[in-house]
Design a protein that fits this description.
It comes from Exiguobacterium mexicanum. The chain is built from 11 helices and 9 strands. It is an alpha/beta fold. An 8-stranded mixed barrel has the order 1-2-4-5-6-7-8-9, surrounded by 4 helices. α1 runs parallel beside α3 and α2 packs across α3. 32% of the residues are buried. The protein binds ligand C2E and calcium ion (3 copies).
């Protein structure tokens, strides 16, 4: 008995050791990748629902690994968050996004840009001053930038979170609640938090084709948001039916594969040329 148990523990420890090592390796590679400039932003268009006009983009991170090729965010963001590397990554993303935005703005193309901000980064000390400083250095007006955060932020101390929202707003940034409706504190945001926009999760958008009651939820969210003076963005639009339904329900902006997947900048410029003419 004792023997088996000891064997079990040894095996368990060895497995934990391997996991911890893999974690450490990935964390090291993340930092190295950042230093070696292996990260890039893809951009997905955001379309004004009522007019079809191109309003701007969401910047989404990609890791182009020299050996593994393109690594999607879900394969590195969680670890980047738990280790804190996400802060450096998102600062880099803001710089890259601002550089691109400046190029567009200098050419008279006044696009908006949205970036994802992890809860950990949002709640970190001095984040507002730091991000405002980056934007100022890059010569971009904060009014064109939105930070998308997820509802998990709301699990924190409310007063602290509210003060953060206010600080972002005072700098001229907008705040959007991403994946709206998937967390369990959704309505707390609407009641107490000074935000600008909600981004309705695609699970509510993509039921519209085959589930007649599915629309009821989206419709209610849109009406509620409008009553509170919040902008609504619908993501994950893949079909013309979904587009038409959401337009008639009064959503403000739309995003999804129907318009375009997230694209690297050169492909995006081609897409813009085709879309705008
Ligand atoms: P998200 O912020 O909810 O971004 C939307 C995701 O849905 C993107 O996946 C996008 O490619 C995908 N998507 C867009 N339109 C459609 C559609 O019509 N149908 C379907 N099925 N999917 C669509 P992606 O680029 O793989 O990003 C996944 C997640 O990674 C993002 O979800 C976001 O949570 C996270 N992420 C990406 N960049 C960053 C970042 O800089 N910081 C943080 N904290 N998270 C990031
Ligand atoms: Ca997002
Ligand atoms: Ca989302
Ligand atoms: Ca998401």
């Amino acid at each position: 008995d004792r023997h088996v148990q000891r064997g079990g523990i040894a095996f368990y420890e060895e497995e934990m050791g391997e996991k911890a090592t893999a974690r450490l390796t990935l964390e090291m590679n993340l930092r190295k990748g950042l230093a070696l400039n292996e990260f890039t932003l893809y951009y997905q268009p955001k379309i004004e629902a009522s007019t079809g006009k191109l309003k701007g983009f969401e910047g989404l991170m990609r890791w182009i690994h020299p050996k593994q090729g393109l690594i999607p965010p879900l394969d590195f963001i969680p670890l980047a968050e738990s280790t804190g590397v996400i802060i450096a990554l998102e600062e880099w993303a803001l710089e890259a996004a601002c550089r691109q935005l400046k190029t567009w703005h200098d050419a008279g193309r006044m696009y908006q840009l949205a970036l994802n901000l992890s809860a950990r980064h949002f709640l970190s000390d001095g984040v507002v001053e730091k991000l405002a400083h980056i934007v100022k250095e890059m010569g971009v007006c904060p009014n064109y930038l939105t930070f998308e955060i997820t509802e998990s932020v709301g699990m924190e101390n409310q007063q602290h979170v509210i003060e953060r929202f206010v600080a972002f707003r005072e700098q001229g940034f907008s705040i959007s609640i991403d994946d709206f409706g998937t967390g369990f504190s959704a309505f707390v945001y609407l009641k107490h938090y000074p935000i600008h926009e909600i981004k309705i999760d695609r699970q509510f958008i993509q039921v519209t084709d085959n589930d007649p009651t599915g629309n009821v939820i989206v419709q209610s969210i849109i009406e509620l948001a409008r009553g509170l003076g919040l902008k609504t963005v619908c993501e994950g639009i893949e079909t013309t039916d979904q587009r038409d339904t959401l337009r008639s329900l009064g959503c403000d902006e739309m995003q999804g594969y129907l318009f375009s997947r997230p694209l690297p900048i050169d492909e995006l410029e081609t897409w813009i040329d085709d879309y705008d003419t």
